[in-house]
């Protein structure tokens, strides 16, 4: 039985009698392979913000070890409470470069997690792994749980990488990944939304600064193309991780969503996005499927409870979204911009 099957009706079970000053207890979900670590209060009214500030080193160590921590039972069940809680993290801004979806703010650094239609699945990914700027931490808060499903699946990117065949892993390690996006009012997102400007010259400047090829076709259509590594070493643990959007942005992801067969051919200019190996060669359907299967084998699901707060190491842990029924409100905040080792030491 894989993780997905085990966790459909999982109940938290005590990990060990590890109790911090009779205030919190740490648990795991049955069959979760340690992701997420579940932290619960033993008393009512525990201030999670104050507790984290007092146990900062412990929380950081647990996050690097497990990849994600679910804080349950701390009653952070409104946008205002979540916004206040977020003040215990760095307020350094993170530019949202090359946007892949609209981002709607509901507080200072708090956003609606997604506006994607509720009947659709959002595939596994790490936030902004395709970009040149991303946050080290992503925090989800459940204001209202869906009536059915609506889970936020998570997967350890270290284990996802280990699931890939040595040949495919080495291919991505050697070549990296090329991203290509077609931006227009009718395909994907308008370039004005992606770049947050109506000035084509500003778009060209930003692209040139980030080694992104950009080609305008008329005033409304823009194609951008750039290359990045597919595998990263974690800046603290040194663990190698699968950290990219090669699966999420690949054409076969769209094919599956709209019901096309792998052998069908859609004109390249009609694809909102696609991914390639770094030498420009195509990622085959078999290779795409291998990545998908790796995510599926490592995927962990749990049902949200109102007031839940899920803290993820964004580089170490991927996330997605299950379809759902009923009203659902999950808000999110992304913090602590990634810095290359040389930058972090300055």
UniProtKB/TrEMBL annotation:
Listed SUPFAM superfamilies: Clavaminate synthase-like
One record GO biological process: antibiotic biosynthetic process
Required cofactor(s): Fe(2+)
Segments passing through the bilayer: none
TauD/TfdA-like domain location: 40-330
Superkingdom in the source lineage: Bacteria
Pfam families linked to this entry: TauD (PF02668)
Name of the protein: TauD/TfdA family dioxygenase
